[in-house]
Amino acid sequence: MTRLHRLLRPRSIAVLGAGWAENVIEQCRKMGFDGPVWPVHPKRETIGGLKAYPSLADLPELPDATFIGVNRFATVEVVRELAAMGAGGAICFASGWEEAGEAGLQADLVTAAGDMPILGPNCYGVINYLDGALLWPDQHGGQRVERGVALLSQSSNIVINLTMQARALPVAYVACLGNAAQVGLAELAGALLVDERVTALGLYIEGIDDAPAFAALAEAARVAGKGIVAVKSGKTEASRAAAASHTASLAGGGAASSAFLRQCGVAEVASLPALLEVLKVFHTHGPGLGERLCSLSCSGGEAGLVADLADPAGITFPPVPETTRTRLADILGPIVTISNPLDYHTFIWGDGPRTTDVFSTMLSAYDAGIFIIDPPRPDRCDPSSFRPALEAVAAAQAATGRPAFAVASLPENFDEALATDFMARGVVPMMGLDTALEALKAAQVAPGQPGWRPVPALATRETRLLDEAAAKALLAQAGVPVPRAVSASRLADLDTSQLTAPFALKGLGFAHKTEAGAVRLGLAALDGQAEMPGATGYLAEEMVTGVLAEMLLGLRRDPVYGLTLTLGMGGVTAEVLADTATLVWPVTADQIDTALRGLRLWPLLDGYRGRPRPDTAAFIDIALRLGAFMAGDDSIEEIEINPVLLCESGAVAVDALIRRAE
């Protein structure tokens, strides 16, 4: 039991305000809440047909939950009184706090609440469809359920819209965070998931307040067999350092948040329809959908369409195993081409037993199956001829124990009554082929590493850019190979007698040396070289030979996720092609290797057309060394090496940008 138990599962409710209180009373009445609801108003005798009490002190008992529908200044005093009484918690509905320039008022609210939990302020509240308890002042589209998913949003309007869904998703809770002055995302989410009647959690996230706590929540949910899916909006903007490094721009714009969710084992989708469809999968089958999928339809057009849409969704359809192919050919005859996706034609249409045999045979060879079927609209057509195929989907799931998804190519082609019937039988109907594919891919998200937590985020601070000579000294200290080099404050003082030509000559003091004309390569000697305007010093290095690939490697502090690692092809290639990968530290060698293999240009690192393979293991070793180095030294704000030169054996950091706290 959490400290939010009384607020989320109240046995008694108090409501303050006039119009808003009346709305809450009406919603509780409509949902059949069987506990007392006590309006509180100093001047009215009744509100919403219920006796009104002149003050909180006049209530017959301490309320488990209170909806506070008064102005922001009065809200602070009401919260103070409720906390002193020992009430269970409150919804602070009023807006106009820090966001309206009322400096300090929200802090006063938190102080007034003390240990009593409050949601908000600027918060619509909570709907508990399991017990019919609504601290909610508006319409909604839900109904009572015995078990279902929880929807948690940092936007009240978004979650109201989600309750209007007609996709047969059973919703157990709806909850809003508002300004999250006291109770944050992880705490509220955890309190919802601890209810044994909640099967999964859907999140609309604008910001994560405590990344380590969220990671712990995600791990606990997965252990309990409950999946979490999120739509993440308001992606983190690149920091001020974006002007000085590729890493800052590449790791911003949502790359870090997506990496964090993925490493937590949280499914991420881009749309609200996909969020609802993933929740249906999690509600029925739990997290961890297998990756081997098959697709069946009675039309070549549908088979082609699902194949075309699956590729951008990241879904592949493995070939049909030979034994399965033989069995299907026996059932369907020589005209049907056995493949995945499978067009089984209409030869078996209406034949329930043969259809079930085909569906079961195909499904048994895979982790799950997509069955494309668009029943005719029942208000204008007779859908009875589709019943054998629909029943065969359910029968195939029952026979194989594998998830069978009845997927309508258009969302409106699976009416709510039919969808509700299928959900009650444990078969997930999915609305819209493109949405279904996005949802199924998201539902395949792997669990996070046990015990994985990001490093704590640091407060924003002023930093300074080290010159390249100092930066490479730090890299060497971390065990990263760098070229042999000499440096001096004046060009004439560079002594290259102990170095082997050819040389690279660089001017120090520039964030982007190439753009400033401060890099000269392939020099046999430094005699006659002109000064570089604006240089604060000079660096001469031995050039690396036998180079097979240039890579970018960057690590930076993230204000939410602690420390990110970004990798891609070197130079501007990563930005031009948007072909990079971002991870949140800590990571393993296997995770970095997987990220590299996910790059579109990975074939260039994997012996494309017989080319020699660069030493990616050495690159991975550098990434791990720098991650550990930076995690152990809070003064380092950012490290970027662009490029890391990969040879057939070994890798060398030939350019370095490091920011350090003042």
UniProtKB/TrEMBL annotation:
Q: What is this protein called?
A: Acyl-CoA synthetase (NDP forming)
Give the GO terms filed under biological process for this record. Answer: tricarboxylic acid cycle
Which keywords label this protein? Tricarboxylic acid cycle
Q: What is the lineage of its organism?
A: Bacteria, Pseudomonadati, Pseudomonadota, Alphaproteobacteria, Rhodobacterales
Residue ranges crossing the lipid bilayer per the database entry: none
| UniProt cross-references to InterPro entries, sorted A to Z | ATP_grasp_subdomain_1, CoA-bd, NAD(P)-bd_dom_sf, Succ_CoA_lig_flav_dom, Succinyl-CoA_synth-like
GO MF annotations in UniProt: ATP binding
Give the organism, scientific name. Gemmobacter caeni
UniProt domain CoA-binding: residue ranges = 7-97
